[in-house]
Amino acid sequence: AVMGQRSQQRRAEEREEQRNSRLAVMAQRGQQRRAEETDEQRNSRLSAMLQHARERRLKDKITIR
């Protein structure tokens, strides 16, 4: 039983590592994309985010009443 547990543990650790490296790759790609985008693209992305936050706040206010 101990052997089985140990190999399960190792598999869990491997999965964890794989997930971490996949996330790291994704983050890297995101940074790359952001580095390549023009000021105009960045501004429109940021304003979209702000707009979204504003709408969410409005919804929250409406729900509270």
TrEMBL record:
Protein origin, superkingdom: Eukaryota
Residue ranges occupied by any STPR domain in the UniProt entry: 3-57
InterPro entries cross-referenced by the UniProt entry: STPR
Region spans: Disordered: 1-50
Biased composition (Basic and acidic residues): 10-20, 33-43
Name of this protein: STPR domain-containing protein
Source organism (scientific name): Araneus ventricosus (Orbweaver spider)
